[in-house]
Design a protein that fits this description.
The chain is mostly helical. 63% of the residues lie in helices and 0% in strands.
């Protein structure tokens, strides 16, 4: 485990602005604790608040169900090499009933997509006309 660049801001040491965000995180998640990602971001209360608001909006139920969103987050986190995010969103997906088989299938897709993306980027085939939209979508 690596040490954080900045110390963690614990709830009892947090400013009122940070505590307000921490309280919203715990209420939204139905949790009684704040994970370390937020504790590090708390050194900049504006970034903490903005990031939490964006995450809360993007990860809320919408056209994609919450498990699908977590699976996408795992895939992107694995591709970007973010150990913290991979662990965090795997835990989140497990809480939303992700199975080991689903995790392994996501990792297989991640591996295949990364391989074929590198091949296509290196070989530069032209995009097939059939893949192009016939008109802009609104």
């Amino acid at each position: 485990m690596t040490a954080p660049i900045l110390p963690l801001v614990e709830y009892e040491d947090a400013s009122p602005q940070v505590r307000e965000v921490y309280d919203d995180i715990m209420e939204t998640r139905g949790s009684d604790w704040i994970n370390n990602f937020w504790k590090v971001l708390a050194h900049d209360p504006a970034t903490l608040k903005r990031t939490w608001q964006d995450v809360k909006q993007v990860m809320a139920p919408g056209a994609l169900d919450p498990l699908t969103k977590e699976l996408i987050y795992i895939a992107v986190s694995a591709t970007n090499g973010c150990e913290y995010c991979t662990y965090s969103h795997t835990a989140g997906a497990r809480a939303k009933s992700m199975t080991d088989a689903q995790l392994m299938e996501v990792m297989a897709v991640v591996g295949m997509a990364n391989e074929t993306n590198r091949l296509a980027n290196g070989l530069r085939p032209p995009v097939d006309a059939q893949f192009l939209p016939e008109h802009p979508r609104t």
